[in-house]
Automatic annotation (TrEMBL):
It comes from the Bacteria. The keyword Glycosyltransferase does not apply. Gene3D superfamilies: HAD superfamily/HAD-like, Putative phosphatase, domain 2. Pfam families: HAD_2 (PF13419). Residues 1-45, 273-318 are annotated as: Disordered. One of its GO terms (molecular function) is metal ion binding. Its cofactor is Mg(2+). Residues 1-12, 283-295 have a biased composition (Low complexity). InterPro entries: Beta-PGM-like, HAD-like_sf, HAD-SF_hydro_IA, HAD_2, HAD_sf, PGP-like_dom2. Residues 308-318 have a biased composition (Gly residues). Belongs to the HAD-like hydrolase superfamily. CbbY/CbbZ/Gph/YieH family. Keywords: Hydrolase, Magnesium, Metal-binding. This is HAD family hydrolase.
Length: 318
């Protein structure tokens, strides 16, 4: 297993920024600010930005979100939140669902407790949320439309990583069950010194783990929380799912209804493969055999805040 990976810490590694400095990452470059990355709001893109930023470009690495992007699990989170709140006599509305989408489960636990008027039960409600979600995923682990094909195509031309706000065991179990985990070189989740989205750290860490400059990476996201994280990291972004309001949609370079969208699939199919034997080529990574069954291979689990390199023993199950 690779040495513990703690995130970007120096300008010499993977496009990192100096410690002690805060940068607002915009499409024109780095703008130093007096705020922490967690407090920064992505700038409106400057100039005319079109789908050509994606469809005429080959990224050095591709970083996928998991929930709602690769796995059709956002509905499980919604149901888990409803179940928890019902126990306290509360019916969540649309505004609650929008606030909860994509945020870290501990933040969601706090939001649940706040909504129920029981802040003293934050820890208990967080545990109930995770327990309910794990149960729902075990019953119905479904990949998002087009996810399997897109991951297989992207694996041919770039190293792949997952950056997720979920616990590692949940991410790895979902992806392994779907037969996707073996495609990924790294899995990055929040942990000690690694704040969750919308901070940029997960995406910056994923880029460094893949040996890529964040500006040359593609992020694939379905939530505004995750999109903000990727934009703050300086990545180009493909948004997936129902199109949001124009202000939110303007943050991404291309919005598609699913990963099976014909333009996106045609783009992925036309990308040049990494030369055989070159760093990051499929010959130097785990190459899933065609027609392999779900769960045939998995990346090893790692401690919170570390990445899990491709290959090795199966990840931890919940």
């Amino acid at each position: 297993m690779a040495a513990p990976f703690r995130g970007v810490s120096s300008p010499e590694r993977g496009g990192g920024r100096p410690r002690g400095k805060s940068f607002l990452l915009t499409r024109k470059g780095d703008k130093e600010t007096g705020r922490s990355p967690q407090d920064q709001t992505p700038s409106k893109k400057v100039g005319i930005v079109t789908a050509d930023r994606i469809l005429t470009w080959t990224p050095t690495a591709v970083v996928f979100d998991c929930d709602g992007t690769l796995m059709d699990t956002e509905r499980h989170w919604q149901e888990a939140r409803r179940r928890v709140l019902r126990e306290y006599g509360v019916t969540p509305g649309t505004e609650f669902s929008e606030r909860a989408k994509g945020i870290h489960y501990t933040d969601c636990g706090r939001l649940l407790a706040e909504t129920a008027g029981r802040p003293e039960l934050t820890g208990k409600m967080t545990d109930e949320l995770l327990e309910s979600f794990r149960s729902l995923v075990a019953e119905d682990p479904v990949t998002a439309p087009g996810a399997v094909e897109m991951v297989a195509l992207a694996h041919e031309f770039a190293p792949l990583a997952v950056a997720s706000n979920c616990p590692r065991d949940v991410v790895e179990t979902c992806l392994d069950t779907a037969g996707l985990l073996l495609y990924f070189d790294h899995v990055v989740v929040p942990g000690e010194g690694m704040p969750p989205k919308p901070a940029p750290d997960l995406y910056l860490s994923a880029a460094e783990a893949c040996g890529a400059d964040p500006a040359e990476c593609l992020a694939v996201e379905d939530s505004l929380c995750g999109i903000r994280s990727a934009v703050r990291a300086g990545m180009r972004v493909v948004g997936v799912g129902p199109r949001p309001d124009e202000e939110s949609a303007a943050l991404v370079d291309l919005w598609v209804p699913s990963l099976g969208e014909p333009r996106l699939v045609a783009w992925a199919e036309s990308r040049p493969a990494i030369p055989e034997g070159a760093p990051g080529s499929t010959s130097s990574r785990v190459v899933p055999p065609r027609g392999s069954s779900p769960g045939d291979a998995a990346t090893p689990a790692a401690r919170p805040g570390e990445t899990a390199p491709g290959g090795g023993s199966p990840g931890t199950a919940p």
